Amino acid sequence: MTETKKEEEKSLNFLEEIVEADLAAGKYSSILTRFPPEPNGYLHIGHSKSIILNFGLAQKYGGKTNLRFDDTNPVTEDTEYVESIKEDIKWLGFEWENERYASDYFEQLYKFAEALINKGLAYVDDSTPEQIAQQKGTPTEAGKASPYRGRSVEENLQLFREMRAGKYPDGAKVLRAKIDLASSNMHMRDPIMYRIKHAHHHRTGDAWCIYPMYDFAHGQSDSIEGITHSICTLEFIPHRPLYDWFIEKLEIYPSHQYEFARLNLTYTVMSKRKLLQLVNDGHVTGWDDPRMPTISGLRRRGYTPESIRMFADKIGVQKRDNLIDVSLLEFCVREHLNKIAQRRMVVFDPLKIVLTDYEKGEEWLPSEDNPEDPETTHRQLPFSRELYIEQEDFMENPPKKFFRLSPGSKVRLKSAYIIQCDEVIKDENGKIIELRCSHLPESKTGGAQANIKVQATIHWVSIPHAITAEVRQYDRLFRVEDPANEEGDFKDYINPDSLQVISAAYAEPSLAKAKFSDHYQFLRKGYFYLDKDSSEDKLVFNRTTTLRDNWVKEQKKA
Ligand code: ATP
Ligand code: MG
To answer: Which domains does the chain show, CATH number per domain?
Structure first.
C-alpha cells in the first residue's frame, strides 16, 4: 500500500466509515443529513463543527443537507436568531438543500401523537411535574405508574383534543408515551411527548397551545424529511432508544441517530444559555462582540471561514468529549492570514524622529503588499523628514542584545533607508520627546546598495501623511481554561483585561481605504480587521490575533 493511500484511509472518521459502508451495502442511493439548530441564540464555534460535519459528509458523498430549525420551544425562540443562523452558515461556505422548521410539522406530529394514543401507546396525565418526577423513580429503583396511566383510548383522545383546543391552563396536563416504567433507561420511563404552553410562537403565532418535546419532534422531523444519518452530540446517546421506539411504533421512515463529541474550547464557554448571560449582563457588547466564541464574533474579529474549516479538520471527529486548546484555532487563523493579509505599517505608541539630513521634502517608496504572494502588488508609501517609530524600538541605555535604535546605532526603516540616531532630545522633565537622526541615502530599499547590513528592521509612518485609527486588542475572555467547570459562577472567572483600546494609533495613509474584504497584517503587531464601528471619519480595527502565540509567555510573567 502506498503512503498516500494509507493517509486517505487513516483520515476517514467513524461517520465517514459508516456512510461508506451504508452506501456500499446499497442501503441508500444517496445520503441526506441535516443541521438542526434551535433558534434561541447565535451560533458558536461548537456549532461550526456540527455544520462542517453534516454539510461536509453530504458534500463528500454526493448527498444533501437540510437546514432545520428545531423551533419547538416558543418562549426562547426568535426570528432574529433564525436570520443570524442562516447568515453564519452561508458565511462558512455551505448551502442547504431545504430550509425547514420543526413547526412546519406541528400538524403531522399531532397526528402521530393521536396514532400512538389509538395504539394504546400514549396517555394524558394530570399529574404535576413534581409527581411525574417522583413516579419516574431513580436509576436504581423502578418507577411507579401514574394513576392516569390506565385511561381508555377514547378518554385520552378526547382529553388530548381538549388540550389542543385550549381548554386547560399551562401545566394542567401532559401527553406521555406508555413504554416501560422499569426500564434501566430513564428516558424510556413514560417520557413526556406534549406539554401545554399558551405562548406565542415566532412562526405559528397563536395557532397552538400544546408543543411537542424535543424527543417527540426531532426523530419524527428527521423521518418526515427522509434524513438518512441524523448526527448529534454524545449527550443524546441515552435518547436513541426512544428515537427508535417512536419511529418503530409509528411505522415511519427509519432515520438513524449517530453521536459524536461536542467541541469544547479552552478559555471560553460554549453554551448559548451562558453566552446569552454574557450579553444580557453587559460583559460583552453583544453576540458579535469580537471576544465571543460565536461565528458572528469571530467573523467581526477577522477570522476567515477557511481558518475555521481548517480548525475543524485538524480536530477531527471523536466519540469522547475533550477540551481543545484555543491556541489551535489561533494557529489556524494565523496560517491563513499569513497567506492572504495585506501588510501595512501602523505605530501604536509613537516616538518622533527628525531626519536632519533629509532634504527631499517627500518621496513615495514602493512596498510589497504581501511577500508570501508570488504575485504580490506594491503600494506607494510616503516618506518624509518627520517620522514616528514605536517607543519600544528605542532605548537610551540598551542592554547588550538590544539591536534596535539607541544613541549612535543604526536600524533599517522597512522599505526605506537605514538611519542612525545622533541626538536624543528631552523635555524639562527628562522625558524623551524626539530623536535627531541621519540617513544613509545609498541604503534605500531596492537600490544598488540596499544590501548594507544592520541588525534590525523596524516599522514607521511619515508624520505629515499619517492617519489615525482606533485599535482594539483582545485577550481571552476568561482567566481559566474551563470556566464552566470551575467552582461557583462561570462569570466570576471573566478576564477583566480582555479588551485594550488604543484610541489613536498612527497608520500609513493607504489604510484610509481599508475594506471588509481585506485582512491586514500590521507589521510586527499582528493581524487586524476593520470593525463595523468604523465610519467616514473614524477607523476602527480589531486585532484578530497576534503574530505568534504569546499566551504561555505572558502567563509565566504574571
Ligand atoms: P447549546 O448548548 O450551545 O445551546 P445546543 O446543542 O442546545 O447548544 P442546538 O441549536 O440544539 O444547540 O444545536 C444544533 C446542533 O449543533 C446540534 O446537533 C448540536 O448537537 C450541535 N452542537 C451544539 N453545540 C455543539 C458543540 N459544542 N460541538 C459540536 N456540536 C454542537
Ligand atoms: Mg439544543
So the answer is: 25-260 (3.40.50.620), 272-342+469-557 (2.40.240.10), 346-459 (2.40.240.10)
Q: What is the C-alpha separation between 188 and 182, in angstroms, rounded?
A: 9
* From 240, 272, 343, 412, active-site residue: 272
pLDDT digits (tens, 9 = 90+) for 266-287: 999 999 999 999 999 999 999 9
Calculated CA dihedral for residues 22, 26, 32, 38, nearest 10 degrees: -40
pLDDT of residue 313: 94
The partner residues of 462 in beta bridges, in order of sequence, read: 387
- Report CA dihedral (502, 279, 497, 321) to the nearest 10 degrees: -130
Catalytic residue among 49, 136, 189, 262: 262
Nearest CA to ligand 1 atom 27: 46
Cα–Cα distances (Å) from 531 to 302, 491, 542, in that order, read 9, 26, 6
Surface-to-core class of residue 145, CB atoms within 10 Å of its CB (0-12 exposed, 13-18 middle, 19+ buried): exposed
Residue with cell 453576540: 287
Instruction: Pick out the chain residues at pLDDT < 50.
Output: 1-3, 558
Q: Left (φ > 0), alpha (ψ -120 to 50) or beta: where does 226 sit? A: left
